[in-house]
Amino acid sequence: MATLCGWASIDERGSARGGSAGDQNGKEVKTGNWYDFGQKVVLRFKDRAKAKKAAQTMKTLCTGNYVGYDQNQRTTLYTEMQKVGWDASKLKTKCETDCSAMMSPVLRSAGISVSKDIYTGNMVAAIMGTGQFTKLTASKYTDSGDYLLIGDIMVNEGSHTIMALEDGAKAGGESSGSSSSGSSSSGSSSGGALNKTPKWTGKVTADVLNVRTWAGEENAKLTSYPQIKNGTEAGVCAEVKAGDGDIWYYIQINGSKGQKYGFVHSAYIAKASGGSTASSGGSHEKGDTVQFTGSRHYVSNDDTGAGSKATPCTAKITNKKDGELHPYHLEGSGVYGWVNASDIK
Fold first, then answer.
1. pTM for the complete prediction?
2. Which of 38, 103, 256, 258 is in the most buried spot, having the most CB atoms within 10 Å?
3. Residue among 296, 281, 279, 286 at smallest CA distance from 334
């Protein structure tokens, strides 16, 4: 039996922008059977109670007539839900959303804070940044709805997203975050969607600092480097907010067990003497054609977030800002944005 899901679809005219507020035909936001829209990622709640709450909110929004589809007014659902304390049953004002913007008030209803401005290109990093999800990429989760759990968020980055409103037919043995079920958390040494290029060099200020698999004291220590000692230097790649609001650093460690990545509390890392916060622009200049070899691009040259997915390609340098974190702006078939100097040649 197909797994029931919920999502924001299209406006009453079959357009993405400019329709009337509210669901004019009962299909602008909707429930329906799981389908293949090219999803490659499933985000799973670690807390099953929160998953059920979010799914109930999604179902309520999708089956009422107060929420329509309009990318021009995509955050008005968030605004109206905030007014009623994130309780979808109290929503009585017609408003608009789109597939990714809808996820933010849905998660808020379950007590999880995500920006109202998320979009499909950055929502995986944003949602994983809460520390309350596990990232699943195995084909059994992406190629059918059979192994989904209620609340699972499916994403085709840069394109579309939907939420499971019930457990799949074969989900009996599933759990939240079990590595045996094929999960791939972005808190693992693979780094997931987070940037893996160090932006500056940090030094440990504590006597001994625990290194964890994700941001938050509740997460397991890294197997290869469970602790690092006072004075140890590490490359700081990104910042992630833990569930309690504390900031953790995603770091690159180079030692006797090779190069690994993990998370440490930001309170115990200081900038090392001479540690740089910027990348050299190198010898490439504006107008040059180069080979982009990286996997992420950024909306600005000083963007400290995780960036968005990009693919290697031939690209043109359309702007250059020496001394910035991401000094080159590229345009190519697989990249459009600011990139690291180390990702071009």
1. 0.55
2. 103
3. 296
Contacts of 15 (CB under 8 A, 6+ apart): none
Question: Which is nearest to 199 in space by CA: 269, 304, 103, 295?
Answer: 304
CB neighbour class for 277 (10 Å; exposed up to 12, middle 13-18, buried from 19):
middle
What is the three-class DSSP state of 142?
Answer: helix
What gap in Å lies between CA 20 and CA 48, rounded to an integer?
36
Return the closest-CA partner of residue 302 out of 285, 283, 279, 318.
279
Give the tens place of pLDDT for each residue, 63-83: 999 999 999 999 999 999 999
As to burial, measured by CB atoms within 10 angstroms (0-12 exposed, 13-18 middle, 19+ buried), residue 169 is middle
Confidence of residue 173 (pLDDT cuts 50, 70, 90): low
Q: Which of 305, 298, 294 is nearest to 327 (CA)?
A: 298
Residues 50 and 147: their CA atoms lie apart, in Å, by: 19
Tell the burial category of 33 from Cβ atoms under 10 Å away from its Cβ (0-12, 13-18, 19+): exposed
| pLDDT at site 2 | 84
pLDDT: which is higher, 258 or 330: 330
Q: Do 70 and 63 form a contact (C-beta atoms < 8 A)?
A: no
